[in-house]
Amino acid sequence: MSKHTVEVMVGKVGIGGINPVRIQSMTNTLTADVEATVEQIIELHEAGSEIVRFTVKDEDDAQAVPHIRKRLVEKGCDVPIVGDFHYNGHLLLTKYPDCAQSLDKFRINPGNVGSGEHHDQNFVTFIEQAIKYDKPIRIGVNAGSKDESIFERLLQENAAKPSSEQKTSQQLVVDTMVVSALESVKMAERIGLPHNKIVLSVKVSKAPEMIAANRQLSALTDLPLHLGVTEAGMGIKGAVASTAGLSVLLAEGIGDTIRTSLTPSPGSSRTEEVIICQQVLQFLGMRHSLPTVTSCPGCGRTNSSVFQEIAKEITDYLLQQTPVWKKKGYRGFEMMVVAVMGCIVNGPGESKDANIGLCLPGTGENSVSPVYADGKKIAMLSGSSRIADFKQMIEEYVESHYRV
């Protein structure tokens, strides 16, 4: 929950106000490929994305949007969908009213709506469509597509100051994004868009600048903020970059909805970006989306191969079972801690502190593995069925503790 923001409703999902920090994601399918886009939206939603965005870049995409909505309804998926517009959103929303009506929110980048007089007129047309169809918008400013007219204005103002007071180019980029966002809000409200129909974002690929921009923006507005380190990168780098930016702000009470802009590895699932968001919120103690696995890093005391295989298999098992348990109506299992420890040094203690935990014997130790539940030893496992037996014990624990 953010410190002081108003609530904006996106479909049936509230952002800001007293709502929890919401998780968002974005498809990477061709929007005009209705079935592929619908399939990925459902996959992202089932993984935990509460709002899903997709690009609407041309007429083919705009014409596909009503069909995407129809197929989602047919499949029983009510996740709010957001259209991401750049350059021609004012034209597409005007020409294709069914597209505008089918979306739950519009995203506009004020740096990509034209220049000079065209900028203002295109922006006005876009906002008028949001008002006409009673849709909220996100004014999303990116460093890579900032409003150059504002940047030039701030450059000139900066150059006129004494050298001791002048800001760096990086600081001016941050200021440009904040000014662009706030001036866009004022213009949208002058046109007639209600205050509680606007979400803001200022995204940069560098965490320090992203943090600075959002701190500044948070102090100047009560509108909900969407956070993210844009173009975060792949794999570990992308996860760490996103976590570095998000965690600082969220710990300060800044931010109402988040996304990790992760470059997916070839062949990997788009849901990776959702899982990272879940883990960030979980380890900050803000939201719990899935059980937590406590596992040690391993050392010379552990049989590394066996320990790593069990830790990975239990982690994957909990990810797999989370949507299954949700569909069964179980409640509270997201708070569950499962330990998979590698040897007897910290293993018994961590396993006792967990809801349920397996303590491996380590290298050269007794091959029997004790299992603890709620601080008490309940079994001793060994042999080739050890993993399967432990999974079954987790399943029984969930059913007995979290079944409503």
TrEMBL record:
HAMAP family: IspG. Belongs to the IspG family. Keywords: 4Fe-4S, Iron, Iron-sulfur, Isoprene biosynthesis, Metal-binding, Oxidoreductase. It is an enzyme of class 1 (oxidoreductase). The keyword Manganese does not apply. Residues 293-395 form the IspG C-terminal domain. Residues 5-277 form the IspG TIM-barrel domain. One of its GO terms (molecular function) is 4-hydroxy-3-methylbut-2-enyl-diphosphate synthase activity (flavodoxin). It catalyses: (2E)-4-hydroxy-3-methylbut-2-enyl diphosphate + oxidized [flavodoxin] + H2O + 2 H(+) = 2-C-methyl-D-erythritol 2,4-cyclic diphosphate + reduced [flavodoxin]. Its cofactor is [4Fe-4S] cluster. This is 4-hydroxy-3-methylbut-2-en-1-yl diphosphate synthase (flavodoxin). GO terms for biological process: isopentenyl diphosphate biosynthetic process, methylerythritol 4-phosphate pathway; terpenoid biosynthetic process. InterPro entries: Dihydropteroate_synth-like_sf, IspG_bac, IspG_bac-typ, IspG_C, IspG_TIM, NO2/SO3_Rdtase_4Fe4S_sf. Converts 2C-methyl-D-erythritol 2,4-cyclodiphosphate (ME-2,4cPP) into 1-hydroxy-2-methyl-2-(E)-butenyl 4-diphosphate. Its EC number is 1.17.7.3. [4Fe-4S] cluster binds at residues 296, 299, 343, 350. Pathway: Isoprenoid biosynthesis; isopentenyl diphosphate biosynthesis via DXP pathway; isopentenyl diphosphate from 1-deoxy-D-xylulose 5-phosphate: step 5/6.
